[in-house]
């Protein structure tokens, strides 16, 4: 199929699989390594999925994650602006010296 986006399908299947694995883990009362072994995966991967899921369930952690993302974005913007200021300072110095000649 031309233009078909397999990556999208993989991510959808992957998210469904993750949700099912977390649901199985929570409802079965079994250990993480036991469930991971039955699913054919790594126990640390399942543990990471569980941690991300619990973070999404906690409103305080969701707010912290949003604020952290916003802070990263603002820091990136500050760096870009500082770089622009440095470039403008150099350009101003070049024009100022060329006008004196």
**Helical segment tally?**
4
| Estimated helix fraction | over 70%
Number of strands: 0
Distance between the termini: 66 Å
* Beta-strand residue fraction: under 5%
Shape category = elongated
Mean pLDDT: 86
Return Rg in Å.
Answer: 25 Å
Helix/strand-derived category reads mainly alpha
Main sheet record: none
Written account of the structure:
With 101 residues, this protein is mainly alpha-helical. Helix content is 87%, strand content 0%. The mean pLDDT is 86.
SSE blueprint:
Blueprint: H1 6-28, H2 32-39, H3 43-57, H4 59-100
Helix pairs in contact: 2-3
Descriptors for this entry?
mainly alpha; 4 helices
Q: What does this entry show, briefly?
A:
The protein contains four helices and no strands. It has helices at residues 6-28, 32-39, 43-57, 59-100.
